[in-house]
Design brief:
The protein is built from 10 helices and 13 strands. The chain is an alpha/beta fold. Strands 5-4-6-7-3-8-9-10-11 form a 9-stranded mixed beta sheet. Strands 1-2 form a two-stranded antiparallel ribbon. A two-stranded antiparallel ribbon has the order 12-13. The longest helix has 19 residues. Pfam families: AAA_25.
Length: 350
């Protein structure tokens, strides 16, 4: 068992200044932002959205345990060790215990610096004070996870527009994140409708995505290991990361290479099966049914028609290709995809 990494020093937050002359601004030596996960989760308010039962909580719990131990996250990203607060507000102690035991049985380590909370009042009824108390007691804190945002945001003020209410709810968390200089991660859901811009799939108004410092959207076809983590924000580089989920260990891993390299094979297989079952569909309808990016589906259908895997018809619809030979068959799923059944405990993948 490797020795625990030492706690890295956390500089005191300087008095916040909000006004400079142009010359003063250019002369200021601002400290580098603090990262919970370098290149992915920066100080400030981060939002992670995904469909229900997709694995967001497995991802959050894994991040929390690894950062608390200073272990590489997502299969290889080096992080600084420090206390982590994980508010698992849709879980019970029994469920959390089962998940942690599953992680430990697969080679994980106990995380003494990880605090697990299953009940927390909403922000305007004591939740804010609870978070402040923990942060004051843990000056080396590296991450606060709220799972889920909806459980802790509280009721919207009467007479406030939906946009203003979403913005105000997020700002309450952002104020704490900025004051303490600690990255916050809010776990949230996506809407059922697909959208070309992944930020538009986040449930709620643009007030929510506008208030946060970074938006992350996790997408994974149901029953498959491969997924894509879309990221954009003020201090993070906009990117798409190929991800793999291991249901046995409950661990997410960031795969090497562009996400498109892992998506294309499975995407073509999904589209071909769908068109075979529902011929005469347009790319927009295919994308909506398969919960895929419309641009990706449109481009893939065009390429598949050129490759003889689909037949394009007038009006922009697609049909199964005319059978050319007995060797023409649906492509196999990627070797990264899960092909085995999972235990009942592993099905709780919220």
């Amino acid at each position: 068992m490797p020795a625990p990494r030492v706690l890295a020093s956390v500089p005191d937050q300087p008095a916040r200044k909000t006004r400079w002359t142009d010359a003063e601004l250019m002369a200021v030596d601002f400290p580098e932002p603090r990262w919970a996960v370098p290149g992915l989760l920066c100080e400030g308010l981060n939002l992670l959205a995904g469909a229900p039962k997709l694995g967001k909580s497995w991802l959050s719990l894994g991040l929390g345990a690894d950062i608390a131990n200073g272990d590489p996250v997502l299969g290889g990203i080096e992080v600084e060790r420090g206390p982590v607060l994980y508010c698992a507000l849709e879980d019970t102690g029994r469920r959390l215990q089962r998940r942690r035991r599953q992680m430990l049985a697969a080679g994980g380590r106990a995380a003494p610096l990880l605090t697990l909370e299953t009940a927390c009042p909403t922000m305007n009824h004591g939740g804010e004070a609870l978070l402040c108390e923990w942060l004051d007691e843990n000056p080396h804190a590296r991450l606060v996870i709220i799972d889920t945002f909806a459980k802790m945001r509280g009721a919207d003020p009467a007479g406030m527009s939906a946009y203003a209410a979403d913005y105000a709810a997020a700002v309450r968390f952002k104020t704490l994140a900025d004051h303490y200089g600690v990255p916050f991660l809010l776990i949230h859901h996506v809407r059922k409708q697909s959208a070309e811009d992944f930020q538009d799939t986040v449930s709620g108004t643009n007030g929510l995505t506008g208030a946060v410092d970074a938006t992350l959207v996790l997408k994974r076809a149901r029953g498959q290991a491969d997924g894509v983590l879309h990221v954009t924000g003020r201090d993070v580089e906009e990117a798409e990361y190929a991800m793999s989920f291991d249901a046995t260990s409950g661990a997410w891993t960031k795969l090497d290479g562009p996400a498109a390299d892992y998506q294309m094979h499975d995407t073509r297989a999904q589209i071909k099966r769908f068109v075979r079952d529902y011929p005469g569909q347009k790319p927009a309808a295919i994308a909506d049914a398969l919960q895929l990016n419309p641009n990706t589906v449109r481009q893939t259908c065009t390429r598949m028609a050129k490759d003889g895997q689909l037949r394009a018809a007038p009006g922009g619809t697609y049909f199964p290709a005319e059978p050319a030979s007995d060797s023409d068959s649906t492509p196999e799923l990627s070797h990264l995809s899960l092909r085995h059944s999972t235990a009942l405990d592993q099905q709780e993948q919220e």
